[in-house]
Amino acid sequence: MRRRFLGDRTAADTPLPLRRQRPRRRFYVPPPMRATRRAPAPIAVQPLGAIAATQLSFLEEVLWSLLGARATVLPALEIPPSCWVAARRQYDADQLLDLVFSRMPLHALRMIGVLNADMFAQGRTFVFGYAHLRDGIGLYSLARLEETYYRRPASDPLLRGRVFRAVAHELGHTFGNPHCDVPHCVMRAVSHIESLDALAPSYCPTCLRRVRRGLVVGPSSAEGLFSRAGALLRRHMPERAAVLYREATQQAPLEPRYHNDLGVALLSLADRTRARVAFLRAAELAGQFPHPYYNLGILYREETGGAEAAEACFREGLARDPDPIAGHRYIAKLYDELFGDALRARHHYRTYIELGGSEVEVVERARALGACH
Ligand SMILES: [Zn+2]
Ligand SMILES: [Zn+2]
Question: Which one from 60, 61, 147, 170 is the annotated catalytic residue?
Answer without folding.
Answer: 170
